[in-house]
Design goal:
The protein is of the alpha+beta class. The chain has 6 helices and 12 strands. The N terminus is likely disordered.
Length: 218
């Protein structure tokens, strides 16, 4: 129990900006659902082992999750990149090109996502902006942060099977209208929290608390 506590403190102190208390995350999740925009996906389930293999195979510095739109539904794209900006730099003849993936089912497959990122900007992204007054394009991580996260999740939850990305809309106040100081600079923005799903015992599954990950861009 003490070891798990120490590992959890390592996660809280190094890997993430903050963990999200369950009550607060429920509030954020409800705000996202209450946007009531057709096509907004509530969560994404990611195969952990496939994701881990993908991450460990890459040599780029950064990992960016882009919002995309496919068949009028919110989806996710992934870019491994050495550039720090929001713009996708894609040229298959150039070794400095971003390496692009799209989410298909619960795995990411290599594919040019520039078109579906543009579809999001013109479609669901535009509708979201009308509600939130915030342009949310991607969530940015370094590859080192993702690798450290994978390592710690495997230590805490050796039977981890999946990651759940739960879509949220941040709020600067809780349901009682009290200030949430950690989230004032993210008020109204769209993001996701990350949960580890694991086999607790005898094929009974549980999930970790959600974490607020990455830097929102732009």
């Amino acid at each position: 129990m003490e070891l798990e506590k120490l590992q959890q403190e390592k996660i809280d102190g190094i890997l993430f900006k903050k963990k999200i208390d369950e009550e607060v995350e429920n509030h954020f999740t409800k705000r996202y659902k209450d946007l009531n925009i057709a096509g907004l996906t509530k969560s994404f389930l990611i195969d952990f082992q496939e994701f881990k293999n993908l991450i460990l195979s890459k040599t780029k510095k950064n990992c960016k999750f882009y919002y995309t739109e496919k068949n009028s539904l919110l989806s996710l794209g992934l870019s491994f990149s050495d550039n720090e900006g929001c713009e996708i730099i894609y040229d298959t003849t150039n070794s400095d090109s971003d390496v692009l993936y799209t989410l298909q089912g619960d795995v990411f497959i290599e594919q040019d996502i520039t078109g579906i990122v543009g579809d999001f900007d013109k479609g669901l992204g535009y509708k979201l902006y009308n509600h939130t007054r915030s342009k949310d394009t991607l969530i940015f991580y370094t590859l080192d942060e993702i690798e450290a996260y994978i390592e710690e999740m495997e230590r805490l939850y050796p039977t981890i099977t999946s990651l759940r990305f739960t879509m949220i809309q941040y709020s600067s106040t809780n349901p009682e209208n009290e200030i949430l100081a950690d989230f004032t600079d993210r008020n109204n923005r769209i993001a996701f929290s990350v949960h580890a799903l694991y086999n607790k015992s005898n094929n009974l599954y549980d999930e970790s608390i959600g974490y607020d990950l990455g830097n929102l861009r732009p």
